[in-house]
Specification:
Elements (H helix, E strand, L loop, with lengths): L6 H7 L6 E8 L18 H12 L3 E5 H7 L8 H9 L7 E5 L10 H4 L5 E5 L5 H7 L4 E4 L7 H7 L7 E6 L1 H9 L5 E6 L27 E9 L2 E8 L24
Parallel strand pairs: 1-6, 1-7, 2-3, 2-6, 3-4, 4-5
Antiparallel strand pairs: 7-9, 8-9
The protein binds NADP nicotinamide-adenine-dinucleotide phosphate.
């Protein structure tokens, strides 16, 4: 289901070989998604919490990076019993498929994401992931191995429709979102901007990684909507396709030279 967009957007995606991808993050008024200690902080209120839960319940899958699992230990379950029930009435599991991007299979075997709530889990690892850790995680999740040093996101996303995943919500963190921008894998970028300041040059932001350094490579966005929610603002952007960095083969280590060339 293509949840947050006009139906037309979804139609464009039918037949594409990857899911429709919506990134959703909450950030402070100064653009930070947590503290410099990478401690999870409450940035939105009840109304935004419900919006996020609705988005999650309407998505086939929800994804985070291993950095977020280790920092926050999220379960990524649908919180509203009514929304879970509606999913079951539609013939789905009560929770979307939960996906962790985790090159070396570092997901702790007791992580909440592996134990809380019913539904499929996928841990995406690189081919370097140690076999003993994979064996432990296999008891709780489907393991997909792709990429040499790190997870090849483009190849992973091409496999997700095989698991019935046509719409994907990405919750973070900043390293994963950066890689998704780098590989041209985001359709919508949504942020709730809270009325608080976190500060700190080392505090994570919605797109960390190395960053682009020339305008030619900056992904362009189209404003879909901006609305006040409680004391903050919710902004939805559509990511325009067609930048030259959107090439096959994932790497957040891809070299961006001082002249701005990506290799
Ligand atoms: N405010 C919000 O809405 C929100 C939401 C989520 C998270 N957060 C915050 O974000 C912070 C965590 O973010 P983070 O940047 O440290 O971690 P992250 O983005 O959650 O995970 C990044 C990790 O994923 C793994 N990975 C594997 N393949 C990758 C690839 N191709 N591209 C990118 N990453 C890949 C890497 O670790 P390996 O090499 O070991 O696999 C990488 O370090 C926490 O402070 C959390 O609280 C905030």
């Amino acid at each position: 289901m293509c949840f947050q967009t006009d139906p037309g957007d979804c139609k464009e995606h039918i037949g594409n070989n990857r899911p429709y991808v919506v990134v959703n993050v909450a950030m402070s008024a100064d653009g930070k998604i947590s503290t410099r200690q990478r401690r999870q902080v409450k940035l939105s209120g009840e109304q935004d919490f419900k919006r996020v839960d609705l988005l999650k319940a309407g998505s086939d899958a929800v994804m985070v990076g291993i950095g977020t699992v280790l920092a926050d230990d999220p379960s990524l379950t649908v919180k509203s019993p009514d929304l879970s029930r509606e999913r079951v009435d539609r013939g789905k599991d009560p929770n979307p498929v939960r996906i962790v991007i985790d090159s070396m299979a570092r997901t702790p075997p007791d992580a909440a994401i592996l134990h809380k709530g019913l539904g499929m889990r996928i841990i995406a690892c690189s081919r370097k992931a140690p076999a003993d850790r994979l064996a432990v995680l296999r008891a709780h999740a489907i393991i997909i191995q792709t990429g040499e040093k790190e997870v090849d996101l483009t190849s992973l996303f091409a496999k997700l429709p095989e698991y019935g995943i046509r719409s994907l919500m990405v919750e973070g963190g900043g390293t994963l979102i950066w890689s998704l921008f780098l590989n041209g894998l985001i359709d919508e970028f949504s942020t709730f901007i809270s009325n608080r300041i976190i500060g700190g040059k080392d505090a994570p932001t919605p797109a960390d990684g190395d960053g682009f350094i020339t305008e030619d490579f900056f992904p362009d966005l189209n404003l879909v909507s901006a609305e006040q929610i409680e004391d903050g603002v919710f902004i939805r952007w559509r990511v325009l396709p067609g930048k030259p960095f959107s090439i096959t083969g994932s790497s957040r280590y891809r070299n961006i030279s001082d002249s701005g060339k990506v290799s």
